[in-house]
From TrEMBL:
GO cellular component: membrane
Tree of life domain: Eukaryota
InterPro entries: ATP-NAD_kinase_N (IPR017438), CERK_C (IPR045363), CERK_PH (IPR057465), Diacylglycerol_kinase_cat_dom (IPR001206), Lipid_Phosphate_FormReg (IPR050187), NAD/diacylglycerol_kinase_sf (IPR016064)
Name of the coding gene: cerk
Highest classification ranks of the organism: Eukaryota, Metazoa, Chordata, Craniata, Vertebrata
Pfam family, one: PH_CERK
Molecular functions (GO terms): ceramide kinase activity
Domain DAGKc: 137-288
GO BP: ceramide metabolic process
Protein name: DAGKc domain-containing protein
């Protein structure tokens, strides 16, 4: 039992057993009275022995008076003792709470308590509700966009059957818009939506739909603050609304990479309890032309070609990626070009350090807490940045920039297993020209425990910003890579003759599942906290890996000390 003062404590009945129920500010706890002297009890975040249970208040979904009194009496009436008890304790309230199941999945469970008087029952409901109302990070009004055509075209059904009932139970009101065409949600958010009415936006769909919402919200925020997003060096203003994702797409890597599973109920519960996780957003420019924002994968070569081919097979649903994947693999194309990048300073880990980004990740927290100090660059440091740029010219099968792990059911550890969600960097993976068999070995390692970077033809760098210039015979760039690309260097690519002659030598960039129309890009503006999604990785900080966390971060260990329930309080909530 936690050491906090009791707000309420009563002897009630639960499943015909008398229990002592205690509410403190952070925990709802109940234990069987008769047997408690014989057996020892156990507490944990949401723990359960044969006779004692504890649920964190922040994981209570709702409490309500139960209508089941009469029905319960009929069932219980079979047993004489039970009947007597139900007569003595006729008033029931039910607490709905989060229960963790296998593989990061959450479910909503109910526990009912029977009280002797209506007044006591009301008091319990009122006091629990008072505690819930103190949890200010919980959303009350949401704007929901459903893509009815994403993934297996189940978005509407998933929302209506699995999510809406939970939102109703948690007294969340939701305005629902089923999109009618691509970019409907983006344009509605950009110009029409009255965002003051809402605590968050929910996206029912896949990564492409999430990207629409990000574009709508980020653009709206920049417009409202007079920021010109066509400038690559513009300092973007973070969005104040959080975005929740209900997975209903084909890859769903943003949901999978943050929650650890693609499960609509789990996501709905994370949204209800008000969890949040900041995410890096980078901007992609072609010269002075803003192309798109990206949060997951920017992929040129293999993934760009898979995506281009798969768009023609949308009718196949998620299976289109398998078919196009095999076809692209067999084509075994490679592309020549120049990649320039600015590596991160020490202290942000490296892509092969085997540190996985979790809720309360010390690297992302370090980035947050020290943002105004070490990370704010002085003029000299900015100048010395110029010298730190690296340039690689080569023939590549794939150039991938993973701003997060990009874990998904196809690749549970992702393209870059140690990439961080909110550290302000991306992992730049260069796969050079190699044999088909070697490339197959590399791909296969995305699906097992082997290190996909442990090949002579693969290199990976953690970078703050990068540029790519595809090879063009008469346009081999001799520019200083640290200078912004000059417009004239790009323009011939997009005009007539040059494009036609060399277009076959180019791939396309896949940007979070959307094809970019330019091959020459510069990627910058990685910043934490641009967008907050409503589903963090809390589950990863369960007791089983506490030791590891305590060993690496004294900050987290302080947060853990003294309260056995606050094992996830290191997160940015
Ligand atoms: N009503 C609609 N009709 C057609 N397309 C739509 C509609 N609403 C949204 N879209 C577009 O559908 C595209 C794909 O959507 P979504 O991301 O939900 O599914 P997916 O591509 O199957 O999944 P993933 O992106 O995870 O691979 C998005 O780019 C979005 O712009
Ligand atoms: C021999 C077996 C080899 C198997 C290899 C599996 C490797 C899978 C890695 C998957 C990486 C997914 C990265 C996510 C990218 C998303 O931004 C994007 C939008 O949803 N999805 C795709 O581009 C769709 C990408 C689809 C890739 C197949
Ligand atoms: Ca990152």
């Amino acid at each position: 039992m936690d050491k906090q003062p009791r707000l309420l404590s009563s002897k009630l009945f639960q499943k015909h057993r008398q229990v002592e129920v205690v509410l403190s500010r952070s925990v709802l706890y109940w234990k069987e009275i008769e047997k408690s002297r014989k057996r020892s009890s156990c507490t944990s975040r949401e723990s359960e022995t044969a006779h004692s249970h504890a649920v964190q208040v922040c994981e209570i979904v709702a409490v309500h008076k139960s209508e089941e009194d009469d029905q319960g009496d009929t069932k219980r009436g079979r047993l004489k003792k039970a009947k007597q008890q139900s007569q003595l304790y006729p008033h029931t309230f039910t607490v709905s709470y989060v229960r963790r199941t296998r593989q990061h999945q959450w479910r909503c469970s109910d526990v009912s308590f029977h009280c002797a008087s209506q007044a006591l029952c009301q008091q319990w409901i009122q006091v629990i509700n008072e505690q819930l109302s103190l949890l200010t990070n919980r959303p009350k009004r949401l704007l929901v966009y459903i893509n009815p055509y994403g993934g297996k075209q189940q978005g509407k059904r998933i929302y209506e059957q699995k999510v809406a009932p939970l939102f109703r139970r948690a007294c969340i009101s939701a305005d629902v818009i089923v999109t009618e065409c691509a970019n409907h949600a983006r344009d509605h958010l950009k110009t029409e939506a009255n965002l003051d009415k809402y605590d968050g936006v929910v996206c029912v769909g896949g990564d492409g739909m999430f990207s629409e919402i990000v574009h709508g919200l980020v653009t709206r925020t920049q417009t409202d603050h007079g920021v010109d997003q066509s400038r690559a060096d513009a300092e973007l203003v973070p969005c104040s609304l959080r975005i929740g994702i209900i997975p209903a797409g084909s890859t769903d890597c943003i949901c999978f990479g943050t929650v650890g599973t693609n499960d609509p109920v789990t996501s709905a519960l994370h949204i209800i309890v008000g969890d949040s996780q900041p995410m890096d957003v980078c901007s992609v420019h072609h010269g002075d032309v803003f192309l798109r924002y990206s949060v997951s994968l920017l992929g040129y070569g293999f993934y760009g070609d898979v995506l281009t081919d798969s768009e023609r097979k949308r009718w196949l649903g998620p299976a289109r990626y398998d078919l196009s994947g095999v076809k692209t693999f067999l084509s075994h194309n490679y592309y020549e070009g120049t990649v320039s990048y600015l590596p991160t300073a020490d202290g942000l880990g490296n892509p092969r350090d085997k540190v996985q980004c979790r809720s309360g990740c010390h690297i992302c927290q370090h980035k947050h807490s020290s943002k105004d100090k070490q990370w704010e660059m002085s003029e000299e440091e900015e100048k010395s940045d110029k010298d730190r740029w690296s340039t690689i010219h080569g023939k590549f099968i794939a150039i991938n920039a993973a701003s997060m792990s990009c874990a998904c059911p196809r690749s549970p550890k992702g393209l870059s297993p140690s990439a961080h969600l909110a550290d302000g960097t991306t992992d730049l993976i260069l796969v050079r020209k190699c044999s088909r068999l070697d490339f197959f070995r590399h791909l296969l390692r995305h699906t097992n425990k082997d290190d996909q970077f442990d090949h002579s033809f693969v290199e990976v760098h953690r970078v703050r910003t990068f540029r790519f210039q595809p090879f063009q015979k008469q346009l081999v760039s001799r520019e200083d890579p640290s200078e912004p690309p000059k417009k004239k260097g790009f323009s011939p690519m997009c005009s007539g003759q040059t494009t036609c002659n060399y277009s076959k030598a180019h791939s396309s960039w896949s940007c979070d599942g959307e094809i970019l129309k330019h091959a020459a890009i510069q990627v910058s503006g990685y910043d934490v906290n641009m967008v907050k999604i409503e589903i963090p990785d809390k589950h990863h900080l369960t007791r089983s890996n506490h030791k590891e966390k305590l060993a690496v971060s004294s900050n987290i260990s302080q947060l853990l000390a003294g309260n056995s329930y606050s094992c996830y309080s290191g997160t940015t909530l």
